[in-house]
Design brief:
Number of strands: 9
Distance between the termini: 50 Å
Structural class: alpha/beta
Radius of gyration: 23 Å
Shape: globular
CATH superfamily of the largest domain: Urease metallochaperone UreE, N-terminal domain
Strand content: 15-25%
CATH architecture of the largest domain: Sandwich
Number of helices: 11
Largest sheet: 4 strands, mixed
CATH class of the largest domain: Mainly Beta
Strand order of the largest sheet: 4-8-9-5
Helix content: 40-55%
Order of helices and strands: EHHHHEHHHHEEHHEHEEEE
Amino acid sequence: MPRYDRDYYRILGVHLEATEDEIRRAYRRLALQWHPDRNPGNADAEERFKEVSEAYGVLMDRTKRVEFDRVRRGTGPGDFHVNREQVFRDLFTDPRASAIFDELARELSRMGVRVDRHDFQTTLFGGRTVMTGHVVVISPWTPFVALARLIGAALRGSRPVESLPVPPEQRVVRGLGRAVRWFFGLPPGVAETAVAAEDVVVPLRVSSDEARRGVKKQIRLPDGGDVVVQVPAGVRSGTRLRLRGKGRRRGDGSRGDAFLAVEIG
């Protein structure tokens, strides 16, 4: 007899042929009802919020929904079990499904609850933030690659160097002098550095095997927050992973960046 952990259609209160819009509307209603910030101190509400979020993550993922439907009808493999954390991770990497968190943040704000997209991650991952699309890899050679491209464009006479757009992953350094300073890690006062006052640098130690094949690492930031980052396969010692908005808080409420400095050994 087919088995599955939860009936996701029943959890969201939708019929078996529900469209994505119907699933989205059902989740929006339940998420607003059970969000922990609207139910402070209520552990049952937090679990209910995670349960409806898991159901939404499965039914909005076409592959997972097809597999679940087959098991539910008894026409597929005998069991359907998913890892809740993986469902949440997949949910946040799917722009089509995760856009709803921006909508929920606006709705909650109108109710007097101030949250943003990252707060949903923190809630669903039990206080940890899982970094997905916010990690920028900056290798030790990035400044020189950027410089070489600028010089090449200038020599071709395509347009003035100053007007060339700089890709986001290369904006951390501008010009040869700053690139050299950053690469050799000269301290402030001796030369300008690429790390602003609101940025933080945290060592990220990985083994040679982890560097070769890639690995997920949980990191404790200086402010006490935890993040889980995907270290890319083939990473080199000296590479920096840039986490946008995870540095120190500025006077205007925004935050600097955190840089994870890869150390292999």
